[in-house]
Every structure is written in C-alpha cells, then in structure tokens.
Amino acid sequence: MSIEKAVWIRAAGEVLPHQFSQFRRRVDLPEAAEAVLRVSADSDFVAYWDGRELMRGQFSDYPAEKTYSEIRFRAEAGTHLLFFDVYYCGIDFSTGIRGDAGFWAEFGAGDSICGSTPAWEARINPAFLRDRLDKLTSQLGMVVGYDARCEDDESGWCAAVESARRGRPVPRPVPLLVNREPVPGRLIRRGSLRRESREGSYAEQVAADRYGDSPGNGFWFLYDLGSEYAGLIETEVDLPPGTVVDISHGEHIADGRVRNRIGDRNFTDRYIAGAGRRRWTLRRRVGARYLQLNVIPPDPVREVGLLRIALRPTELELPPPAEFDCDSAEACRLYRNSVRTLQLCMHEHYEDTPWREQSLYGCDSRNQMLFGYTVWGNYGFAAESLRLLARGQRRDGFLTLTAPSLSGPPIPAFSMIWVIALWEHYLYSGSRAVFDSCREQALRVAETVLALRDAETGLIHLPASGELWHFYEWCDGLEGNRRDSGDSQFEAPCSLFAVEMFDALFRLTGETAWIERADALRRAVYAFFWSPEKQCLLTRRDDGRTHELVQLLGLYTGAVPEEKRRTVLDGILAEKHLRVTPSSMPYLVRVLAEGPREAQLYLESRIEREFYPMLAEGSTTVWETAFGQADFNNAGSLCHGWSAVAVYYYHACVLGVRPEKPGFAEIRRSPVATARIRNMRGEIVTPSGRLVFER
Predict the structure, then answer these.
(1) Strands 170-171 and 9-10
(2) Which pTM does this prediction carry?
(3) Where in the numbering of this chain does the Alpha-L-rhamnosidase concanavalin-like domain appear (predicted)?
C-alpha cells in the first residue's frame, strides 16, 4: 500500500492576482481499479486524466472553509497522467473573497493514495496574458486573455511549493455542475472592420472598431445561440499565428452588434491564435444569447478560418420541471420562460443574473426559492444558499450584501428577507434543519434590528452612515440613493419588513415575544405613516411620493387596520402610487389574490402588462425590470431570477395551490378569478411527490 498525504501547494514564484497555474503527477497502477479524485482550489480548477477532462468547478466557498469536489471513475492498469489547470483570482468580488493561492488534490485507486505535495510538478501557465488586468464587471470577475502560440511551450516546470497552511477541505454541499452538449452559434451577420485603437481594455478596442470600412484590417462575425444560455464559450479556429480574436458576449443586439462595453464593464475576452487547427474553451462561465468575434490577422488576408463557435451549457442537475398548461398560449410561454430563467440563475448557488453578476443576494434568492419550490422541490439546494448567506454575517449583525463576499454595503432589508426565507423554506419543505443550523444568525439579525428601534415612535430607524444601503427595490425613492437625513427620517418599508421578520420568527420558534414585537411595530407604523389626506401609508413623512410596495406590505403584514384595508386596496387598483417592480411582485400576488374578484382580475392584467411585452420582443427569459436592456444606463439584465414571479402566480393563484401547514401537510386550494385563462392543468411538486391539479 502506498499512501501520500495531501497538502496545499502552489506553483513556485511570485503569487499574483488573476494567475493561471498548472500541476501534474504521474500515477502507476499495477491493475485496473475504481478510482476517486478529490480536488480543491482557490479559486477554480479543471482536472484531467490522460488528457481527458474529468471535472471542473470549485464550489463558491469561504477561504477559511474550503470544500473539495469529487469524481469516481474506472482507471485502467498502466501509467497515467493527472493534470490540473488552476486559477487564482486574488481579488474581492461579489462572487468571492480573496484568499491564499492554493491547490489540494487526493487520488485513490486500489491500495494507492497519492495527494498533492511539493514533489508534484507545477508552473505558471505561459499562455494566459497579463498585458491587462480588467474586470468583466465589478461583481463578477476578470477578463481573460489567452495566447495559443504558447501552448506548445513546455518550459517552466519545477517542484511545487507548499502554500499557506489550511486544513483538509470538506465535501462540497451541492453537486457538480453538468456539462451539456455545446450549442452552436448560427452566423447571422458578418463584415469587414478597421481597428485603429490598440489602447484600453479588449472591450474598449472592440467598441472603437469601425465597421464596414473598406479596405479594412479585420473581420467581424455575429452569432445567435437561439436562446439565452449559461456556460462556457468554445472556439475552433484555423488562423494565421498571432491573429487576434476578440470574443464578446451579450444578451441582445439592440445596437446591431453585441453591446460589449457598458460604463466600466468589459464583456470581451481575447484569444490569440496559434499555428494550425486549435480548440479553446473560456473557463469563466458566461450568460449570453449572442457571441461576436472581431478577428484581426497580423497580415492582410481575404478570408479567415473560423470553424466553430459554441457555448457549452453548464447546469445544475434538476428533475424535470413541474408542467403547466392552459388555453392561453402567452401564459404557457411566460411560464416556460420564467422556469428557464430560474434554471439559468442556479449554479453553485442562486444567482441574480448569469450575465452581469452571478451573485447570491438575500432578496433575489428568496424570490427564486419561493418560485422554484413547487417547480422542482429543490429544498436541499435552497438550504445551502441560505447557509452560505448565514456565514456572511458581519460584526454589526447584518449579512453581507452577497455571499461569499466582502464587497458593498449590506442592505438591512435583505437580511430581514433572509430570515423570512428561512420560514418559507420550512413551510414548503417541512424541514426545520436549515433554521436550526442558522438559528443563531437569524436571531442576531432580529436583535440587531430591535436595537435600532426608536424609543419615541417605536419604529426601526436605520443609521445614516454610508455603511448601510437603504435599498428596498428599483423604484424612485426606494433605491437607497437618498441617505437618512436625521432624526426625522423614518422609512416605512424598513419597519414593515421587520414586522414580517418578527412574524416569521414567531412561527419558527413559537416564542410569543416575537408576535408581541410584531404587533407593537404594526401599530407604530400605522400611527406614524398613515396619511388621512392621502388615505394611504406614506413612505416617509417628508416625501410626497407614495409607493405601491408600502401599501402592499401594510396590507400583507396587517399594519393597515381592517377599517382601512378596502381604501388602501382601492388606491392600488386605481394605480395611485409608484408601482412595484418585478422584485417586489410576490407581495402584489399575495395581497391581490386574497382580494375581491376585481382585485384578482387586476392581478392577471398586471402580470400580462409587466411580462407579455418581453414575449413580444422574442425574449426566452424574463428581464430584471420592464425597461429591459435600456435600464441602468444600458446595463439592464434580460435574465433575472427575481422576476420569475409568473411561476408563483400560476401555481399559487391560477392553480390556487399553497401549503397551509409545513411540508404541505395541509394544502390550501383557492384559485383566483381570471379573464383569459379558463382551462388549465398543472403539477405542483411537494415533499411527498408531484400532485396534479385541474381547473
């Protein structure tokens, strides 16, 4: 028996951010055996066995709590090569925290176990460029440059060195992503271009290209994948050595080409061709429907040999989604697009968008969980995202803006929504395990909020410091751009989310103190924010704007007393307030579904007005906001998980199925009135299986 204990190692030399390394180890097997390989890295890896890819993808963990990925396979007798491509980010993003460069591997077959040690060979990969260090976005990661002319360079290999000491990693909590068959791009436009600028990021150079100029010094090609996908860009080319291929990705072509440079965002990576026919895979996952290649040969040529451009989807393994069918073609299509959006926003954890950020937020993920429970019953995946957020609790008691991350000021409302999501997980799954594991963090969030209660008014009063982001939704007056102006500044949504959080904690713990705190806060909100003149709840006393979200929260949490509920509801139906955006529409669904027939029919029309224009635009997913790509200064996402509320509407309201008790131990069936959907049939996934309902 041969046992070689694994330690953390790295390539020799200076450790730099955005660094690509390689490791290798020859393995002799006297006979065929079942093999197991476990790998961990800061920040990412691809593992190969005799040149064949075995697995890729580090779980989005915290530097001090590293996890390993595992694969089992049949290994034949003989001498084999274990080979690893490892990437070290070394920069804080919304998707990860800077840690120490390091790689850990353990291979076992038969009686032999070999682990990563300084005896392994390692080197810095010479093919990856360091001519520029540009961020794709401030949230997501770095732009990649690659020179295939260096692929045949075998220099630089030497003994690895031991890296910063860390303990043995633990198994990753969610399965490895599945690589699907590549989706080939369909060429829809092409032409010549002239590149005159060699300055700035790759995206800036592409943005400065002049198209259609003759004579040009390059070519451009635009490909349509036919639908939005999330995965790895693959290319196959036969180009003169030194040809620059700038690969841009995006969700639309509203400008006639891919919008690759937006503000300081750079959606272009670079590949420099080597001699002969070559394949290359961009290792960073992208979200895109369109791919654009700007090709600049080193010398004038009449044609270039682009053989293939494709995107290989990398997906979380899920069961087939719950089926939904009805006599409205638009409703069926919206349901499918919303389910597709949810799927594209799940990988290592929930993501807000696969294109721009790929980040785990407390609010976004709460929506995605709520919408997805009855589609897949993916309670385990949701549980791990909730735990990942819990590990990001700060010293002040709030959760970090995203997880795992140290970037950006936290949003107190998102921390409260995370606690609410713990209750909803219990309600739908029937399991208290997630709350039990996160109980300490949940109570600390609540106690942090309680400590901000104003003695005179009884309201929650967020401090004015820039350490907190007073965000509620992307609506004028609620986006948090205006900071608290002093003692007179109270915001109704903050206290209303606190009411909902206290109610959730009462249901989770059974402790009456939480319901007493919720009741006191309900009364305080109405006493302070009710406007006899406007007959609604104000958002702030000194703000003339009123918001639909505040009215919905007031009705949903019971802060609006019974005698005023119809008045507030009528104001919503008359659209007297600034309307909610998709992120807050679950409250619109919940409140209006409980209202009279006219409220239910209005709800149907709101869903159609919000999302049917996306169908008319040919979108295969649902957008971040109704303004689509034009929002946020032309940086709006066209695939955003928090907007898939139509799934929730069709399941909880049109089919009318909701859990009355945890785990669907009792089911509430109360379909809402609809004007354009008369016949429907659908599945609801529960912990005990799939249930079919018709109407």
Answers:
(1) unpaired
(2) 0.95
(3) 221-298
